[in-house]
């Protein structure tokens, strides 16, 4: 408990995006169908559309790992095109007001900001996507930094969070996320970890090692003085 108490009142909160702040399946179900329709039209992938749950189960991974899991026998050209289409269709969906934040996310972020905490995003996604979600869902102004693997070319979330902490001279922070990569990134950088048990994309064992589990985003406010 010693480490937990030392970081009980942190300087900052670092949030994952997909499955933590943003309920990604509300955007991705339609995007997924469109990607595979286009790939078939272009002759790059001729099989049936993989189950969308397979894609949702890969959220939090780097893009290269996602397509290796979703369509393992595909060509490099198909995977590269899927990257392009995913970003294009995600941004089009966001602009069309598709996709929602989890309940209470905006209110809690505003309250944390009002209490003087610095807020950040650390995501394995592409820069344009991560910033697009924040912009189109109206929460971009609440953050002191939006960090993505796409922008910083990091090979793991551990490295991304380390870069963020160094850039902003943050000594104590909480990592808030729904995947094992978030737990690893927090623990490897000496942070308190709040695991998001309300997210449906990961499995419960992914949150093993978290200091606390959230079943509702509002619980975050009850954990700090």
**CATH C-level label of the largest domain:** Alpha Beta
Work out the helicity level. Answer: 40-55%
User: What's the overall average pLDDT, rounded?
Assistant: 92
The N- and C-terminal alpha carbons lie at a distance of 16 Å
- Name the beta content range: 5-15%
CATH fold name of the largest domain, please? Rossmann fold
GO biological process, one term: DNA repair
Keywords: Hydrolase
Pfam family, one: HAD_2
Protein name: Phosphoglycolate phosphatase-like HAD superfamily hydrolase
Short description:
Helix 7 links the parallel strand 4 (118-123) and strand 5 (145-148). This protein has 2 domains: 2-23 and 100-222, 3-Layer(aba) Sandwich (Rossmann fold), CATH 3.40.50; 25-95. The protein has helices at 2-6, 25-41, 52-56, 63-70, 76-95, 105-114, 127-136, 149-152, 157-167, 180-188, 219-222; strands at 12-15, 22-23, 100-101, 118-123, 145-148, 173-177, 192-196, 212-214.
Could you explain how this protein is built, in words?
The protein contains eleven helices and eight strands. The protein has helices at about 1-5, 25-40, 50-55, 65-70, 75-95, 105-115, 125-135, 150, 155-165, 180-190, 220; strands at about 10-15, 20-25, 100, 120-125, 145-150, 175, 190-195, 210-215. The chain has two domains: about 1-25 and about 100-220, HAD superfamily/HAD-like (Rossmann fold, 3-Layer(aba) Sandwich), CATH 3.40.50; about 25-95. Helices cover about 45% and strands about 15% of the residues. It is an alpha/beta fold and about 220 residues long. Strands 5-4-1-6-7-8 form a six-stranded parallel beta sheet, with helices on both faces. A two-stranded antiparallel ribbon has the order 2-3.
């Amino acid at each position: 408990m010693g480490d937990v108490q030392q970081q009980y009142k942190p300087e900052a909160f670092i949030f994952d995006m997909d499955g933590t702040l943003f309920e990604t399946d509300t955007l991705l179900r339609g995007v997924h169908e469109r990607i595979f329709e286009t790939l078939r039209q272009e002759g790059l992938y001729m099989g049936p559309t993989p189950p969308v749950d397979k894609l949702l189960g890969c959220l939090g991974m780097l893009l290269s790992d996602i397509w290796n899991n979703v369509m393992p026998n595909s060509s490099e050209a198909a995977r590269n095109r899927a990257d392009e289409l995913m970003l294009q269709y995600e941004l089009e969906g966001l602009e069309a007001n598709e996709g929602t934040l989890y309940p209470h996310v905006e209110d809690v972020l505003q309250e944390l900001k009002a209490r003087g905490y610095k807020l950040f995003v650390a995501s394995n996604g592409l820069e344009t996507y991560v910033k697009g979600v924040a912009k189109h869902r109206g929460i971009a102004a609440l953050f002191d930094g939006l960090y993505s693997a796409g922008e910083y070319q990091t090979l793991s979330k551990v490295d991304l969070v380390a870069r963020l902490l160094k850039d902003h001279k943050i000594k104590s922070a909480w990592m808030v996320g729904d995947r094992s990569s978030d737990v690893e990134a927090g623990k490897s950088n000496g942070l308190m970890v709040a695991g998001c048990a309300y997210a449906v994309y990961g499995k419960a064992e992914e949150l093993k090692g978290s200091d606390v589990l959230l079943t509702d985003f509002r619980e975050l406010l009850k954990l700090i003085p």
